[in-house]
Automatic annotation (TrEMBL):
Its main location: membrane. GO terms for molecular function: L-amino acid transmembrane transporter activity. Belongs to the amino acid/polyamine transporter 2 family. Pfam families: Aa_trans. It comes from the Eukaryota. The lineage of its organism: Eukaryota, Fungi, Dikarya, Ascomycota, Pezizomycotina. The keyword Endoplasmic reticulum does not apply. Keywords: Membrane, Transmembrane, Transmembrane helix. This is Transmembrane amino acid transporter protein-domain-containing protein. It is a multi-pass membrane protein. The chain crosses the membrane at residues 63-88, 125-144, 156-175, 181-208, 244-267, 287-306, 327-351, 357-380, 392-417.
Amino acid sequence: MGEKKHDEPVALDGSKIDQIYEDQTYSHDAVFGEITGDGPNYRNVGWLGTAALMMKTQIRLGVLSIPVAFDTLGLVPGGNILCVIAAFTTWSDYVIDDFKLRHRDVYGIDDAGGLMFGNPGRYQFGFAFCLYWVFVAGSGMLGISISLNAVSTHGACTAIFVAVAAIVGFMLSSIQTLGRISWVAWVGLFCILTSSGAVFIVTIAVGVQDRPASAPQIGGVWVSDYKIVASPSFSDAIAAASSIVFDCLCTVVTSVYLAIGFVVYYYCGSYVASPALGSAGPTMKKISYGFALPGLIASTMLVIHLPAKYIFIRLLQGSRHLTANTVVHWVSWLGCTLGITVVAYIIASAIPVFNNLVSLIGALLGTMMSFQPMGCMWLYDHWSQGKMDRSPKWILMVCWSIFIVLSGTFLMIAGTYGSVVSIVNSYRESGGPAAWSCADNSNST
Protein backbone atom coordinates (compact mmCIF):
# COMPACT_ATOMS: atom_id res chain seq x y z
CA MET A 1 0.00 0.00 0.00
CA GLY A 2 1.63 3.26 -1.15
CA GLU A 3 2.15 6.35 0.94
CA LYS A 4 -0.35 9.17 0.84
CA LYS A 5 0.84 12.43 -0.67
CA HIS A 6 0.07 15.60 1.27
CA ASP A 7 0.51 19.25 0.43
CA GLU A 8 2.53 20.84 3.21
CA PRO A 9 0.30 23.40 4.98
CA VAL A 10 1.65 26.88 5.54
CA ALA A 11 0.55 29.66 7.86
CA LEU A 12 -0.23 33.18 6.62
CA ASP A 13 3.28 34.31 7.57
CA GLY A 14 4.79 31.57 5.45
CA SER A 15 5.91 29.33 8.34
CA LYS A 16 5.26 25.61 8.28
CA ILE A 17 2.39 24.26 10.36
CA ASP A 18 3.43 21.36 12.58
CA GLN A 19 0.70 18.86 11.70
CA ILE A 20 0.52 15.09 12.18
CA TYR A 21 -0.77 13.23 9.14
CA GLU A 22 -2.54 10.01 9.95
CA ASP A 23 -3.99 7.13 8.01
CA GLN A 24 -4.24 3.44 8.73
CA THR A 25 -0.55 2.79 8.01
CA TYR A 26 1.44 5.58 9.62
CA SER A 27 1.62 8.95 11.32
CA HIS A 28 4.17 11.60 10.46
CA ASP A 29 5.49 14.28 12.80
CA ALA A 30 7.86 17.13 11.95
CA VAL A 31 10.13 16.29 14.90
CA PHE A 32 9.80 12.53 15.38
CA GLY A 33 9.35 11.48 11.76
CA GLU A 34 7.32 8.40 10.88
CA ILE A 35 5.45 6.89 13.83
CA THR A 36 4.23 3.31 13.48
CA GLY A 37 2.71 0.73 15.79
CA ASP A 38 6.11 -1.01 16.06
CA GLY A 39 7.71 1.70 18.16
CA PRO A 40 6.96 4.35 20.76
CA ASN A 41 4.52 7.19 20.05
CA TYR A 42 5.90 10.32 21.68
CA ARG A 43 2.83 12.46 21.01
CA ASN A 44 0.05 10.60 22.82
CA VAL A 45 0.26 11.90 26.39
CA GLY A 46 -3.03 13.82 26.15
CA TRP A 47 -3.90 17.21 27.60
CA LEU A 48 -4.72 15.94 31.09
CA GLY A 49 -1.48 14.02 31.48
CA THR A 50 0.48 16.93 30.04
CA ALA A 51 -1.09 19.38 32.49
CA ALA A 52 -0.39 17.08 35.46
CA LEU A 53 3.23 16.50 34.47
CA MET A 54 3.92 20.17 33.77
CA MET A 55 2.50 21.14 37.14
CA LYS A 56 4.64 18.49 38.83
CA THR A 57 7.81 19.90 37.26
CA GLN A 58 6.84 23.36 38.53
CA ILE A 59 5.88 22.55 42.14
CA ARG A 60 9.11 21.12 43.50
CA LEU A 61 10.66 20.90 46.94
CA GLY A 62 12.83 23.88 46.03
CA VAL A 63 10.03 25.93 47.57
CA LEU A 64 11.52 24.87 50.90
CA SER A 65 14.63 26.97 50.22
CA ILE A 66 12.55 30.16 50.09
CA PRO A 67 12.21 30.66 53.90
CA VAL A 68 16.02 30.46 54.10
CA ALA A 69 16.28 33.05 51.32
CA PHE A 70 13.90 35.29 53.30
CA ASP A 71 16.17 34.90 56.34
CA THR A 72 19.05 36.25 54.27
CA LEU A 73 17.13 39.06 52.56
CA GLY A 74 14.39 39.92 55.06
CA LEU A 75 10.63 39.52 54.60
CA VAL A 76 9.98 42.66 52.54
CA PRO A 77 12.98 42.51 50.14
CA GLY A 78 12.57 38.73 49.80
CA GLY A 79 8.88 38.99 48.96
CA ASN A 80 9.48 41.82 46.50
CA ILE A 81 12.28 39.95 44.73
CA LEU A 82 10.09 36.85 44.47
CA CYS A 83 7.25 38.85 42.88
CA VAL A 84 9.57 40.67 40.45
CA ILE A 85 11.23 37.46 39.30
CA ALA A 86 7.80 35.84 38.97
CA ALA A 87 6.69 38.70 36.71
CA PHE A 88 9.82 38.29 34.57
CA THR A 89 9.36 34.55 34.17
CA THR A 90 5.62 34.88 33.46
CA TRP A 91 6.44 37.22 30.60
CA SER A 92 9.06 34.75 29.43
CA ASP A 93 6.44 31.98 29.37
CA TYR A 94 4.24 34.13 27.13
CA VAL A 95 7.14 34.81 24.75
CA ILE A 96 7.91 31.08 24.47
CA ASP A 97 4.30 30.34 23.54
CA ASP A 98 4.22 33.13 20.95
CA PHE A 99 7.59 32.07 19.49
CA LYS A 100 6.46 28.44 19.12
CA LEU A 101 3.27 29.50 17.32
CA ARG A 102 5.31 31.59 14.90
CA HIS A 103 7.92 28.84 14.32
CA ARG A 104 6.10 25.51 14.51
CA ASP A 105 9.12 23.44 13.49
CA VAL A 106 11.05 24.51 16.62
CA TYR A 107 11.35 21.57 19.02
CA GLY A 108 13.59 22.78 21.84
CA ILE A 109 15.41 25.85 23.05
CA ASP A 110 18.40 24.83 20.94
CA ASP A 111 16.27 25.15 17.80
CA ALA A 112 15.34 28.66 18.92
CA GLY A 113 19.02 29.42 19.51
CA GLY A 114 19.91 28.09 16.07
CA LEU A 115 17.20 30.20 14.44
CA MET A 116 18.42 33.36 16.16
CA PHE A 117 22.20 32.88 16.31
CA GLY A 118 23.09 29.98 14.03
CA ASN A 119 25.04 26.93 15.20
CA PRO A 120 26.83 28.70 18.11
CA GLY A 121 23.43 29.61 19.58
CA ARG A 122 22.08 26.11 18.96
CA TYR A 123 24.95 24.44 20.81
CA GLN A 124 25.05 26.96 23.68
CA PHE A 125 21.31 26.85 24.39
CA GLY A 126 21.15 23.08 23.99
CA PHE A 127 24.05 22.57 26.39
CA ALA A 128 22.51 24.96 28.95
CA PHE A 129 19.16 23.14 28.72
CA CYS A 130 20.71 19.73 29.39
CA LEU A 131 23.00 20.97 32.14
CA TYR A 132 20.13 22.76 33.89
CA TRP A 133 17.94 19.66 34.09
CA VAL A 134 20.90 17.49 35.09
CA PHE A 135 21.57 19.82 38.04
CA VAL A 136 17.86 19.80 38.92
CA ALA A 137 17.96 15.99 38.84
CA GLY A 138 20.92 16.15 41.22
CA SER A 139 18.93 18.34 43.60
CA GLY A 140 16.05 15.84 43.33
CA MET A 141 18.34 12.97 44.35
CA LEU A 142 19.64 15.07 47.22
CA GLY A 143 16.04 15.78 48.27
CA ILE A 144 15.22 12.07 48.24
CA SER A 145 18.25 11.29 50.40
CA ILE A 146 17.18 14.00 52.88
CA SER A 147 13.67 12.52 52.94
CA LEU A 148 14.94 8.98 53.50
CA ASN A 149 17.21 10.20 56.29
CA ALA A 150 14.33 12.01 57.98
CA VAL A 151 11.84 9.14 57.72
CA SER A 152 14.32 6.49 58.85
CA THR A 153 16.01 8.67 61.52
CA HIS A 154 19.26 8.34 59.58
CA GLY A 155 18.87 4.61 59.17
CA ALA A 156 21.76 4.30 56.71
CA CYS A 157 24.72 6.20 55.32
CA THR A 158 23.58 9.25 53.32
CA ALA A 159 25.79 8.21 50.42
CA ILE A 160 23.74 4.99 50.22
CA PHE A 161 20.48 6.96 50.15
CA VAL A 162 21.77 9.14 47.29
CA ALA A 163 22.74 6.00 45.38
CA VAL A 164 19.28 4.50 46.00
CA ALA A 165 17.71 7.73 44.70
CA ALA A 166 19.85 7.49 41.56
CA ILE A 167 18.91 3.86 40.91
CA VAL A 168 15.19 4.49 41.38
CA GLY A 169 15.39 7.61 39.21
CA PHE A 170 17.15 5.71 36.42
CA MET A 171 14.68 2.84 36.43
CA LEU A 172 11.58 5.06 36.31
CA SER A 173 12.98 7.63 33.88
CA SER A 174 13.82 4.85 31.42
CA ILE A 175 10.10 4.33 30.77
CA GLN A 176 10.12 5.74 27.27
CA THR A 177 6.81 7.47 26.69
CA LEU A 178 4.55 8.94 29.30
CA GLY A 179 1.56 8.39 27.02
CA ARG A 180 1.93 4.59 27.03
CA ILE A 181 1.84 4.48 30.81
CA SER A 182 -1.07 6.74 31.72
CA TRP A 183 -0.61 5.97 35.40
CA VAL A 184 2.46 8.22 35.44
CA ALA A 185 0.24 11.24 34.79
CA TRP A 186 -2.00 10.27 37.71
CA VAL A 187 0.98 9.55 39.94
CA GLY A 188 2.28 12.97 38.98
CA LEU A 189 -1.04 14.55 39.94
CA PHE A 190 -1.13 12.61 43.22
CA CYS A 191 2.43 13.68 43.95
CA ILE A 192 1.48 17.32 43.48
CA LEU A 193 -1.03 16.86 46.28
CA THR A 194 1.35 14.92 48.55
CA SER A 195 4.25 17.31 48.02
CA SER A 196 2.03 20.34 48.56
CA GLY A 197 0.47 18.58 51.53
CA ALA A 198 3.89 18.05 53.07
CA VAL A 199 4.74 21.71 52.64
CA PHE A 200 1.45 22.88 54.13
CA ILE A 201 1.78 20.42 57.02
CA VAL A 202 5.07 21.99 58.08
CA THR A 203 3.67 25.48 57.42
CA ILE A 204 0.79 24.83 59.81
CA ALA A 205 3.02 23.04 62.31
CA VAL A 206 5.48 25.91 62.69
CA GLY A 207 2.53 28.23 63.29
CA VAL A 208 1.12 26.25 66.22
CA GLN A 209 4.30 24.93 67.86
CA ASP A 210 5.96 26.61 70.83
CA ARG A 211 9.25 27.24 69.00
CA PRO A 212 11.26 25.90 66.02
CA ALA A 213 12.97 22.56 66.54
CA SER A 214 16.46 24.07 66.31
CA ALA A 215 15.74 27.07 68.59
CA PRO A 216 17.09 27.01 72.16
CA GLN A 217 14.76 24.79 74.23
CA ILE A 218 14.66 26.99 77.31
CA GLY A 219 11.81 28.19 79.46
CA GLY A 220 9.72 31.28 78.83
CA VAL A 221 7.97 32.57 75.74
CA TRP A 222 10.07 32.28 72.59
CA VAL A 223 9.91 35.22 70.21
CA SER A 224 10.87 34.78 66.58
CA ASP A 225 13.89 36.80 65.44
CA TYR A 226 12.58 37.26 61.90
CA LYS A 227 13.83 40.36 60.05
CA ILE A 228 11.64 42.75 58.04
CA VAL A 229 14.75 43.98 56.21
CA ALA A 230 18.08 42.19 56.54
CA SER A 231 21.62 43.42 55.85
CA PRO A 232 23.30 40.60 53.95
CA SER A 233 26.60 40.81 52.11
CA PHE A 234 26.39 41.10 48.33
CA SER A 235 27.34 37.46 47.78
CA ASP A 236 24.76 36.21 50.31
CA ALA A 237 22.00 38.43 48.88
CA ILE A 238 22.59 37.45 45.27
CA ALA A 239 22.81 33.75 46.21
CA ALA A 240 19.45 34.02 48.01
CA ALA A 241 17.90 35.72 44.98
CA SER A 242 19.27 32.93 42.78
CA SER A 243 17.50 30.29 44.87
CA ILE A 244 14.24 32.15 44.12
CA VAL A 245 15.04 32.11 40.37
CA PHE A 246 15.31 28.31 40.59
CA ASP A 247 11.62 27.85 41.43
CA CYS A 248 9.66 30.99 40.55
CA LEU A 249 7.48 30.16 37.49
CA CYS A 250 3.88 31.35 37.46
CA THR A 251 1.26 33.30 39.39
CA VAL A 252 -0.37 30.34 41.19
CA VAL A 253 2.97 28.82 42.19
CA THR A 254 4.28 32.23 43.26
CA SER A 255 1.25 32.79 45.52
CA VAL A 256 1.88 29.44 47.20
CA TYR A 257 5.58 30.22 47.59
CA LEU A 258 4.87 33.62 49.15
CA ALA A 259 2.45 32.14 51.67
CA ILE A 260 4.81 29.32 52.64
CA GLY A 261 7.89 31.53 52.72
CA PHE A 262 6.28 34.23 54.86
CA VAL A 263 4.61 31.88 57.37
CA VAL A 264 7.54 29.51 57.89
CA TYR A 265 10.10 32.29 58.18
CA TYR A 266 7.85 34.47 60.38
CA TYR A 267 7.50 31.72 62.97
CA CYS A 268 11.01 30.25 62.71
CA GLY A 269 13.22 33.27 62.09
CA SER A 270 16.90 32.45 61.82
CA TYR A 271 16.21 28.93 63.12
CA VAL A 272 14.50 27.88 59.88
CA ALA A 273 15.89 24.62 58.53
CA SER A 274 17.08 23.97 54.98
CA PRO A 275 15.01 22.33 53.55
CA ALA A 276 12.27 23.90 55.68
CA LEU A 277 10.46 20.59 56.39
CA GLY A 278 12.90 20.08 59.26
CA SER A 279 11.68 23.21 61.08
CA ALA A 280 8.72 21.67 62.91
CA GLY A 281 10.46 19.08 65.06
CA PRO A 282 11.33 15.38 64.63
CA THR A 283 7.80 13.95 64.50
CA MET A 284 6.40 16.50 62.06
CA LYS A 285 9.57 16.23 60.00
CA LYS A 286 9.01 12.50 59.56
CA ILE A 287 5.35 12.98 58.64
CA SER A 288 6.11 15.80 56.20
CA TYR A 289 8.94 13.99 54.45
CA GLY A 290 6.84 10.84 54.31
CA PHE A 291 4.21 12.76 52.35
CA ALA A 292 6.85 14.45 50.21
CA LEU A 293 8.79 11.31 49.23
CA PRO A 294 6.49 10.11 46.38
CA GLY A 295 6.51 13.59 44.89
CA LEU A 296 10.30 13.79 45.12
CA ILE A 297 10.65 10.46 43.31
CA ALA A 298 8.23 11.53 40.56
CA SER A 299 10.01 14.87 40.12
CA THR A 300 13.42 13.22 39.91
CA MET A 301 12.13 10.75 37.33
CA LEU A 302 10.79 13.57 35.17
CA VAL A 303 13.89 15.75 35.34
CA ILE A 304 16.12 12.82 34.37
CA HIS A 305 13.72 11.91 31.57
CA LEU A 306 13.67 15.43 30.04
CA PRO A 307 17.39 15.85 29.19
CA ALA A 308 17.71 12.15 28.31
CA LYS A 309 14.82 12.44 25.83
CA TYR A 310 16.33 15.62 24.38
CA ILE A 311 19.73 14.00 23.76
CA PHE A 312 18.13 10.80 22.46
CA ILE A 313 16.03 12.65 19.88
CA ARG A 314 18.99 14.73 18.74
CA LEU A 315 21.11 11.60 18.32
CA LEU A 316 18.57 9.64 16.29
CA GLN A 317 16.49 12.37 14.63
CA GLY A 318 15.98 11.58 10.95
CA SER A 319 16.80 7.91 11.52
CA ARG A 320 14.33 5.03 11.53
CA HIS A 321 15.79 4.02 14.91
CA LEU A 322 14.07 6.98 16.60
CA THR A 323 10.61 5.39 16.51
CA ALA A 324 11.43 1.71 15.92
CA ASN A 325 12.19 -0.94 18.54
CA THR A 326 15.69 -1.71 17.28
CA VAL A 327 18.85 -2.55 19.22
CA VAL A 328 20.29 0.87 18.33
CA HIS A 329 17.10 2.50 19.62
CA TRP A 330 17.20 0.82 23.04
CA VAL A 331 20.96 1.04 23.56
CA SER A 332 20.82 4.75 22.75
CA TRP A 333 17.84 5.40 25.00
CA LEU A 334 19.16 3.51 28.03
CA GLY A 335 22.58 5.04 27.48
CA CYS A 336 21.04 8.52 27.62
CA THR A 337 19.06 7.90 30.83
CA LEU A 338 22.03 6.18 32.48
CA GLY A 339 24.43 8.95 31.48
CA ILE A 340 22.15 11.69 32.84
CA THR A 341 21.61 9.71 36.05
CA VAL A 342 25.33 9.20 36.66
CA VAL A 343 26.18 12.88 36.15
CA ALA A 344 23.27 13.98 38.37
CA TYR A 345 24.38 11.48 41.04
CA ILE A 346 27.90 12.92 41.03
CA ILE A 347 26.51 16.46 41.41
CA ALA A 348 24.22 15.42 44.29
CA SER A 349 27.11 13.69 46.07
CA ALA A 350 29.71 16.39 45.43
CA ILE A 351 27.51 19.36 46.54
CA PRO A 352 25.49 17.81 49.39
CA VAL A 353 24.13 21.11 50.76
CA PHE A 354 20.55 21.58 49.58
CA ASN A 355 20.26 25.37 49.75
CA ASN A 356 23.65 26.02 48.15
CA LEU A 357 22.92 23.60 45.32
CA VAL A 358 19.55 25.26 44.61
CA SER A 359 21.21 28.71 44.53
CA LEU A 360 23.92 27.53 42.16
CA ILE A 361 21.38 25.98 39.76
CA GLY A 362 19.22 29.09 39.76
CA ALA A 363 22.12 31.46 39.12
CA LEU A 364 24.22 29.54 36.63
CA LEU A 365 21.48 27.88 34.60
CA GLY A 366 18.03 29.06 35.71
CA THR A 367 18.54 32.49 34.18
CA MET A 368 19.48 30.90 30.84
CA MET A 369 16.14 29.09 30.91
CA SER A 370 14.04 32.11 31.91
CA PHE A 371 15.62 35.41 30.91
CA GLN A 372 18.16 35.97 28.11
CA PRO A 373 16.74 33.63 25.42
CA MET A 374 13.21 35.01 25.82
CA GLY A 375 14.32 38.61 25.43
CA CYS A 376 16.16 37.58 22.27
CA MET A 377 13.10 35.69 20.99
CA TRP A 378 10.90 38.78 21.18
CA LEU A 379 13.52 40.92 19.44
CA TYR A 380 14.00 38.30 16.72
CA ASP A 381 10.28 38.19 15.89
CA HIS A 382 9.46 41.89 16.26
CA TRP A 383 12.61 43.89 15.47
CA SER A 384 11.72 44.30 11.78
CA GLN A 385 8.32 45.67 12.78
CA GLY A 386 10.04 48.91 13.82
CA LYS A 387 10.97 49.64 10.21
CA MET A 388 7.27 49.90 9.35
CA ASP A 389 5.76 51.19 12.59
CA ARG A 390 8.05 52.47 15.34
CA SER A 391 5.20 52.89 17.80
CA PRO A 392 5.61 53.75 21.52
CA LYS A 393 4.56 50.17 22.35
CA TRP A 394 7.27 48.77 20.08
CA ILE A 395 9.92 51.03 21.62
CA LEU A 396 8.79 50.06 25.13
CA MET A 397 8.95 46.33 24.33
CA VAL A 398 12.39 46.68 22.75
CA CYS A 399 13.66 48.39 25.90
CA TRP A 400 11.98 45.75 28.08
CA SER A 401 13.46 42.84 26.11
CA ILE A 402 16.95 44.35 26.30
CA PHE A 403 16.46 44.89 30.04
CA ILE A 404 15.45 41.24 30.47
CA VAL A 405 18.61 40.10 28.65
CA LEU A 406 20.86 42.39 30.71
CA SER A 407 19.24 41.59 34.06
CA GLY A 408 19.42 37.85 33.34
CA THR A 409 23.10 38.16 32.48
CA PHE A 410 23.75 40.10 35.69
CA LEU A 411 21.91 37.52 37.79
CA MET A 412 23.81 34.69 36.10
CA ILE A 413 27.28 36.17 36.69
CA ALA A 414 26.71 37.71 40.12
CA GLY A 415 24.52 34.86 41.35
CA THR A 416 27.04 32.20 40.37
CA TYR A 417 29.75 34.15 42.18
CA GLY A 418 27.56 34.49 45.29
CA SER A 419 26.59 30.82 45.28
CA VAL A 420 30.19 29.66 44.97
CA VAL A 421 31.25 32.00 47.79
CA SER A 422 28.41 30.64 49.96
CA ILE A 423 29.49 27.05 49.31
CA VAL A 424 33.12 27.86 50.13
CA ASN A 425 32.15 29.76 53.30
CA SER A 426 29.86 26.93 54.42
CA TYR A 427 32.75 24.49 54.37
CA ARG A 428 35.23 26.97 55.82
CA GLU A 429 33.09 27.99 58.81
CA SER A 430 31.34 24.77 59.78
CA GLY A 431 33.03 22.07 57.76
CA GLY A 432 29.70 21.33 56.08
CA PRO A 433 28.77 17.83 54.95
CA ALA A 434 31.61 16.33 52.95
CA ALA A 435 31.22 14.92 49.46
CA TRP A 436 29.96 11.31 49.50
CA SER A 437 29.41 11.71 53.23
CA CYS A 438 27.55 9.36 55.55
CA ALA A 439 26.47 12.24 57.79
CA ASP A 440 22.75 12.94 58.28
CA ASN A 441 21.78 15.70 55.83
CA SER A 442 18.22 16.20 57.15
CA ASN A 443 19.23 18.37 60.10
CA SER A 444 20.91 21.32 58.39
CA THR A 445 19.86 24.82 59.43
